[in-house]
Amino acid sequence: MSSSFATQKLNGKVAIITGGASGIGEATARKFAKHGALAVMIADVQEEKGRQVAESIGSDRCTFVKCDVTDEEQVESLVKSTVERHGQLDIMFSNAGMASKCPQDTLSFDLDAYEKLFSVNVRGVAACVKHAGRAMVDRGVRGSIICTASVLACCGSEFSIDYTMSKHAVLGLVRCASVGLGKHGIRVNCVAPGPIATPLTCGVTGLSPEELEQKFEPDFAMKKSGYLKPEHVADAVFFLASDDSKFVTGHPLAVDGGFVARNI
């Protein structure tokens, strides 16, 4: 594929990426800008990192907005300011999330920790889908909403069950929203990454990316292809954001190197 053709994939599109300051969100922001997005709004609570990413992509193409997705008013303001500035919103990538901060099994389930995690992973995603959907409907935009789920949305887990529950909820939301927004020409999908060494995962485990990749490697069916990287997930998000997936909705697109096939 020539670079001139690739740059047209998102030509004139305006996108919001929550959790865009690092990991999958950062990789996706760079991917969108590379492929011709008119504007990429990076939303995150990590202000310094977010500004650095936006500046490195270029102020003519990318802007950082501090946003806590657990606060619906901040999400609504993010969407409204984007539309006011650029006249439209074509793509919402609801990617902000958090991992379990403590071991969560059935018999020692910490409900306070669960509520904090759900406020980000479920409430935050619901707010993004709601307000992005409203903006697209109001403007008559046949947009694309993509959420970050997980392969754990398709199976159970003995530990980190609050995280697993939250990703099941994301998948449920995606399926419901795809039905509700489909009549407006709006597609709603999610990516379901397998185990991946993002800054979030590294921070929770205390392991380096290299250590995590080696730890995860035996769980993948796919061999001789390296390790799962944020850029691989960004490729899938890009597909769901572009017109190449114009008849795909309500779908969890697994980027897992055969993790589910091997382990379920």
Automatic annotation (TrEMBL):
Origin superkingdom: Eukaryota
Keyword tRNA-binding on entry: no
Assigned keywords, A-Z: NAD
One Pfam family in the UniProt entry: adh_short_C2
InterPro entries: NAD(P)-bd_dom_sf (IPR036291), Sc_DH/Rdtase_CS (IPR020904), SDR_fam (IPR002347)
Keyword flag NAD: yes
Gene3D superfamilies registered for this protein in UniProt: NAD(P)-binding Rossmann-like Domain
Residue ranges that the Swiss-Prot or TrEMBL entry lists as coiled coil: none
GO MF: oxidoreductase activity, acting on the CH-OH group of donors, NAD or NADP as acceptor
Family: Belongs to the short-chain dehydrogenases/reductases (SDR) family.
Name used for this protein in its record: OLC1v1012743C1
Source organism: Oldenlandia corymbosa var. corymbosa
